[in-house]
Each structure stands twice: as structure tokens, then as C-alpha cells.
Amino acid sequence: MALAIALVVIVVATVVFHFASPWWFTPIASNWGLLDDTILITLAITGAVFVAVNLFIAVAIVRFRHRAGHRAAFEPENRRLEGRLTLLTTAGIVAMLAPGLYVYSQMIAAPADAAQVEVLGQQWQWRFRFAGTDGRLGRTDVRHVSADNPFGLNADDPHGRDDVLVASPELHLPLDRPVTLLLRSHDVLHNFYVPQFRVKMDLVPGLVSRFWLTPTRAGRFEILCAELCGLAHYNMRGHVVVEDEAAFRAWLAAQPTFAAVR
Amino acid sequence: MSDDDLHAGPHGFWTRYVWSQDHKVIAIQYGLTAIAIGLVALVLSNLMRLQLGFPGAFAFIDPASYYQYVTMHGMIMVVYLLTALFLGGFGNYLIPLMVGARDMVFPFLNMLSYWIYLLAVLVLVASFFVPGGPTGAGWTLYPPQAILPGTPGTEWGIVLMLVSLVIFIVAATMGGLNYVTTVLQARTHGMTLLRMPLTVWGIFVASILALFAFPALFVSGVMMLCDKLLGTSFFMPAIVSMGQPLAHAGGSPVLFQHLFWFFGHPEVYIVALPAFGIISDLISTHARKNIFGYRMMVWAIVAIGGLSFVVWAHHMYVSGMNPYFGYFFATTTLIIAVPTAIKVYNWTLTLWRGDIHLTVPMLFAIGFISTFVIGGLTGLFLGNVSVDIPLSDTYFVVAHFHMVMGVSPVLAVFGGLYHWYPKITGRLLDERLGKLHFWVTFLGTYAIYMPMHYLGFLGMPRRYYAYEGYEFIPASAQDLNAFITVAALVVGVVQLVFLFNLAWSLRHGRHAGANPWGATTLEWQTPDTPPRHGNWGAALPEVHRWAYDYSVPGAARDFIPQNVPQEAGVGAEGPAWEGHA
Amino acid sequence: MTLLDALTAKPWLPQPPHPGRDAPRAPAANVGLRMLLGVIAMLFALFAVALLVRARLPDWQALPCPGRRRCG
Ligand code: HEM
Ligand SMILES: [Cu+2]
Ligand SMILES: [Cu+2]
């Protein structure tokens, strides 16, 4: 009996907590509102199942708890019921998987006009690189990395000379412009994570990973690292500033190029 | 008395309790060792919680120790506690008894398996005492970080961890061969595959998974040892570490992740399937009702076991692997939810129209259903590639995997121990202490993990030593963390009550008799309790019915043991058996 | 009884009196050895896959030949 009450209390408390909780999605600042929607769809379906199963157990405990003279039924199986439940479950799964895969197909297809920005991770700081006037990022290699070439740019590649280098952990992005982030690491795994953007991706030494987004809200947001990268993992801070085009242009123009820092 | 001698087994203390080849003694050795090392992991978790709840209040917990605690806690809980306890402990004790064998088919190998497991544990423990301490790379041990400066324990700790794992795999393989072969070859007369209790099914399939999944960990461990000690570059690309260029080049960190999770996902089910089996039997026995949809339950265990080998990359949606893999792995992962859901339905339908005795094992079993449902449902978020991306590496993940493979299997372990302790010792565990233990653990884990999901929605990343100065995290989150810590401490302390109960009831518990729960399965039908070496006295039992003849219509008692002949059990020919509504 | 039959029987119904009694079983060592060979095959397969994946990455160097002779 106490268990039945406890289960009901848990269900009620969970639902109340859900609606009263001050801890909820950090307000979004990118185009990926669809991700919040898929979470909510999933939460609605799974929440219903959670409530249903727990209440069902509670009712079963109350109705079929042991009393003198009471005897259980003998019921090896019930193919019809099992078949129905299987179908219902499958339907629920499809209702979650379909929107999930649909959103995913968008996430991995960056629009053709997306700008490219490189994010470079290193224990434990962020750096950023923009293509210069030629619109192309120069080639890099870990072997070129040195104190005065922290990006590992290939000095022989003409495309690299005009690349704009941001050595401080603050990235500016123009509002409402799609951008693909190209992620690179010189040492261990890191993960570029801005809670307000929703999307995240590992930085993997030896390859370039990527994701895209469109910042939709001006502001200054924190960059965190979301892949364990050693002692200061929790302190690998940075900021991304989303601002209008003019302010962004002015900021970019004030950053040095590779040719200038050499 | 030659017969008695034969089955009484060896006499001296050492041969009887230390170098024993009796599966029951080995099971107890495995169990006690696993619980001992598990206590270390529990203490580590409470230390972590202290730091998270009251940051900086405990000066000795610096970032290095925090990351070492995280790593050792995770690895011990998953591998050295739960895997060892379910397979080496429950598997060893129950398989021969439940299938009606005198022992495992390879008793010497079985003994060796335990001692090698103990060696693995000792090597692991040794890493606490070497210079630099244990590794702090996270239980996933991802390279390059695991073997580079900037992570604690990259000199000795990681080497000892990998060596310990390799030793553990040798032990687990020896055990696994035994469990699988015993189930296949040593069942007694009449024990067909579908007459086996679900506990045996769960442990059997989990052992097969262990046999074929651990090699992936072995391979990745050996290769990482080569990278670390011999300077090869399997997983190490060209790297500049702390300003120093390294000699490695060309390796692939993502390759390690594929190998690791090819082991790691089946590992989840190595822990879950035995729990499924145990829970099924507890529910059926204590609800005095046959398990609903037995065949479906068996097929689901087999299906889940098979599918668990083709879902591994759902742990790698943000790893930088080929993004098109996401479609495949999201689909397989959500498919696995169907057989899993069926299991949950069938547990609840077993309760329906049952005769539910709320004994302590039953409380834990029903608690398991509740916590497993949450953990399973949140898995649907994390398996569904796009939904996972905002949540991956946040506290949502921590809440999810603790519910599904931390709390739930541990509840199954407790339920199982309260249930089988009387067979192991001849005495019942104290019921009042048991209820206290259940209520605090069950409600406590809800208090710990339910709110954690919301910290995950908020976006709080996991594996963080501290969250100071992050503006997107409201100050109230810290209060919540303090609350969670208090709950975790309470849950930690109440486990001492359980340990006390285990020790106290050994001498003072109520005498149980041979079959205190009125159970049908063979382990309760032994001539002696606790069973002697050889289990069955002069003659092996003969099985005449399935494991779930509870409340059979027309039968005098509400259970008919498996070794009771058909004619003796009423309704044996009764066509009414199939004619349920 | 084939495996499929064994896994689709309705075990709660009365079965032939001694199912499986007369079916001779292979010795346990035999079955155990087969399982072990399976595990070892898995181990080798995984080593092979890992090596092949690694060997496809650009910087892979074939093993140098001993002595001066050309191999293959
Ligand atoms: C009272 C019980 C427990 C508490 C309070 C607890 C607490 C914690 C905490 C605080 C973390 C670190 C979170 C972070 O910083 O990211 C953690 C990680 C973890 N725990 Fe537990 N835990 C408990 C039981 C268990 C059990 C029974 C398991 C068994 C599967 C388990 C498996 C893990 C794993 C695999 C990790 C991840 C380690 C990593 O990130 O590398 N925990 N736990
Ligand atoms: Cu990090
Ligand atoms: Cu998995």
C-alpha cells in the first residue's frame, strides 16, 4: 500500500516539479528551435508513458495486494494484448524518430551561402580564424605550430596570408547569417558548446569536424567545453558575441591578419 | 556413507573456503569482492557530490582528484562491481542450481576466474597508490587525452587501469565460457530451454554478450598501451601537447571510440539483462503469478542481446564521425526500445490479477520497474540523434545512465540478495532494516536523479569540477546541487544499514527453511539449505514443468515446484490453461 | 527438437514426458572449446578491423622489409 501511495506521489511530484521548475531550457539564440520542439515531442510521449506505467503499477498494487483467500490468475500469455502493445509502442517510436531524423537531415546540410569560421581548440583555450579577402581559409598543419604561429598555418599557402586570426577567446558573429563552424584541435578532444545555440560538436585532433547554425538573437553568450579535456576542462571559457552586420564588420577589420602578425 | 562423502566436498578450511571449486563459494567470493570495491566507488561518488554541492568547501578535492574520482567511480561501478556481481556472483550461484547441475562444467576454470578477477581488482586499487595517482581520463578513457599531460594519472594510472582491464577480461572470459557451457550442456533431465527461469536466460545471454564484447575493449586497451608505452600511433594523430610537438602521427581518436563503444553498449546490457531476469523471477514469485508472456520475455532478451551489437555509435553523435552514420544508429537504437518496452509491459501485466506480497525483494523489484522506466524513456531522447545533440554531455546524460544502468541494476542486486540470502545462508535478512533500506534508497535516488534531468535541459555540462562564474546557470542551480548532494549522502549512509543487515542476519536472522517464498524454481528444492557441495545429494532432480506454475487452477497450493511430476500437479492435462480471456 | 522448436514451444502446456532426455549431448569441453574459438576469432577480427581502418589513414607505413630483399 505504502508503495502504491509512493508511486502516485512520485508521479504527482514529478509533474509538479516539471511545471514549477525554474530550471529549464536556456533561452535559445539560434535557428535550431526545431531541436527544442523535438525534445518537447519526446517529453510529451515519454512523460505520458511514465505517468501511465507508474499509475498502472499503483492501481495493480492496490487491487491485487495479498489478502487472505485471494488467489492470482493463471495467464501464461495473451498474444492479442501483446501484439497491440507492440504496435502502439512502434507507433510511439515512429512519432519520435521521424521528426528527429527530419531535423537531423537539416542539421547536416549546411546552406550553400553559409560563411565559414574556424574554431581552434587547445588545452585550454579557444581561438578563431576567418578567411580573408580571398574568401578562402589557408591550409594548416600541426607541424607548423609554433609560438608565433599558434594556428599552424602553412606560410607557403597564399590563401593563408590574409586569414584573420583571433587569438583571444572571443568570437563575433553577424546576426541572422548562416555560418559553418569548422572545428580543429591541436591536442586532445574538446567540444564547442554554446548552450543558447543548442548544437555542439567535438573538436578532434587530426580531422576537421563541423556544424552549422544561424544566430538569431544579438547578445554575448558563453562558450563552454563539453568534452573532457583534462584538468581545466571545466574552465575552458570563451564568449561569442552576436551583433549586427556593421558592428561585426568593424570588429573583424580590427583583427590582425596572418601576414600582419608574422 | 561414501555417497555423502562424495557430495560433502573437501573438508579443510582452505580447500573449502579459499581454493574452492564449488560454484557457491566462488559466487560468494565474487560477490564480497565486488561489494567491497563497490563501496570504494560509492565513497568516491559521495566525495564528488560534496564538491558539486558545496564547491571549494573541502580543500582536498582539487580538480585532479575530482577527475580521478569520476573515472574510478564510473569504471568500478560498471565493470568491477556490476559486471562481476551479476555474472560472477549471481551467475555462479544460480546457474547450476537453477538448471539442476552439480556445479559449473569447468570448476577449476571457475576458481581461476575468481582469482584472476581479484588480481584485476588489486591492480586497479594499486593505482590509487602510485605516483600521480589513478587516471582521471573519464571512464571512457578517450585518447589522446588519456595518455597526455594535462590529465591526472597519465604516467602510471592509465597503464595500471588498462592492465587491470585486460586482466579482468581474461577472468570474465573464463567465467563466461563456464556459464554459457553450463547452460548449454549441464541442464538436468527435463530442463528444456524454455523451462529455464528468466534469471538464467538473462545471465546466459549477458554472458554471451560479455564473451563477444569484451574483446573490443581488450583490443582498444592493448593498442592504447602500445601508443603509450611503445610510441605507436593507433589512436594518436600529430599533436602539439602543451607546446611540445609529439612523435605520434596519423592515428585516429575516433577509431578508439568505435572500439570502446562496440564494447561499451553491449556492456550496458551485460548489466541490464541479468537484472531483467532477476526482476522477472522476483515479480512472478512474490505476485504468486506466472510471468506474463514468458516466451515474449525470452525472445525479447535474445533480441535485445543481438541488437545491442549494432547500436554502439549512438554514443558518438557529436564525436565528429561521419554524420550519415547518425541515421542508421538512431534507427537501430529506437528499434531496441520495442523489445525493451515489451519487457516492462509484461512485468506490470504480471502484477495485474496477481496476489501481490509486498515483501522486501518485491519492493525492490517494483522499485526497479519504476526507475528503469525513467531511464529507458530518457534513452529515447539520447538515442534519437538530433534530440541527443543539445543534451549530450550534459547532466541529462548523467541522470539517464544512472537511472538505467546505475540505480536500476543496483535495485535488482538488492532485490536478488534479499530474495536468495536465505538460500545462501539459511536465514532471512531482517525485514525492518530491509524496508528502511528500500525506502531510503528508492526515494533517495529519485531525489538525486529526477532534478538532474532539468539541470541537463538547462545545459549544465557533465564532468565539471565547478560551475562558478557561468552566467547562463542561475544561482538557484547551486541550491539544487546542494539538495542533490544531501540526498546522495543519505543514500550512501543507508547502504551501511544494508551491510549491517548482511552481517547481523548471518547469526541472528530468522531461520528460513528450504523454501521461504514458496518458489517453484529448482534452487529452492535442494535437499539441504544452504546446499552442500554437489547441490543435489544422491540424485539429480528431474524437471517436469516450466518455472512459473504459480496459482495453477485446481492445484492445492499456489505453487508447483519444477521437479513435481505432471500427474502429481493438478490440472496437468487441463485444456483450460490456454483459455484465458 | 530443433532450436526453433525449442524456442517456440509453449512450456506451460504438458510436454512429452522426458523432453531432451535421450538426445545425446556433446561433451562440455567440446562446446567450451568452440565458444573459446569464437571469442578468439572475435578478438582477431577486431584487431584486423582496427588495423585495416588505421592502415587506410594517409600516413600508414608498410612494415620495412628485413635485409635488403624486396618483399612481394
Ligand atoms: C548513490 C549513488 C551514486 C551517486 C551519488 C553517483 C554520483 C555520480 C557523480 C557525481 C558522477 C560524476 C558526474 C560528473 O561530474 O560528470 C558520476 C558519474 C558516473 N557514475 Fe555514478 N553515482 C552513483 C551510483 C552509480 C552507479 C550504481 C553506477 C553504475 C553504473 C554509476 C556509474 C557512473 C558512471 C559510468 C559515471 C560516469 C563517469 C565518467 O563521466 O567518466 N554511478 N556518478
Ligand atoms: Cu574540455
Ligand atoms: Cu549505448
TrEMBL record, chain A:
The keyword Transmembrane applies. It is found in: Membrane. It catalyses: 4 Fe(II)-[cytochrome c] + O2 + 8 H(+)(in) = 4 Fe(III)-[cytochrome c] + 2 H2O + 4 H(+)(out). This is cytochrome-c oxidase. Its EC number is 7.1.1.9. PANTHER family: CYTOCHROME C OXIDASE SUBUNIT 2, CYTOCHROME C OXIDASE, SUBUNIT II. Its main location: membrane. Keywords: Copper, Electron transport, Membrane, Metal-binding, Translocase, Transmembrane, Transmembrane helix, Transport. The chain crosses the membrane at residues 38-64, 85-104. It is an enzyme of class 7 (translocase). It comes from Aromatoleum toluolicum. The lineage of its organism: Bacteria, Pseudomonadati, Pseudomonadota, Betaproteobacteria, Rhodocyclales. Residues 112-254 form the Cytochrome oxidase subunit II copper A binding domain. It is a multi-pass membrane protein. Belongs to the cytochrome c oxidase subunit 2 family.
UniProtKB/TrEMBL annotation, chain B:
Keywords: Cell membrane, Copper, Electron transport, Heme, Iron, Membrane, Metal-binding, Oxidoreductase, Respiratory chain, Translocase, Transmembrane, Transmembrane helix, Transport. It is found in: Cell membrane; Membrane. It is an enzyme of class 7 (translocase). The keyword Ion transport does not apply. Its EC number is 7.1.1.9. The chain crosses the membrane at residues 27-48, 69-95, 115-137, 158-180, 200-222, 259-280, 292-312, 324-346, 358-382, 394-418, 438-460, 480-504. It is a multi-pass membrane protein. Its main location: membrane. Cytochrome c oxidase is the component of the respiratory chain that catalyzes the reduction of oxygen to water. Subunits 1-3 form the functional core of the enzyme complex. CO I is the catalytic subunit of the enzyme. Electrons originating in cytochrome c are transferred via the copper A center of subunit 2 and heme A of subunit 1 to the bimetallic center formed by heme A3 and copper B. NCBIfam families: CtaD_CoxA (TIGR02891). This is Cytochrome c oxidase subunit 1. It comes from Aromatoleum toluolicum. The lineage of its organism: Bacteria, Pseudomonadati, Pseudomonadota, Betaproteobacteria, Rhodocyclales.
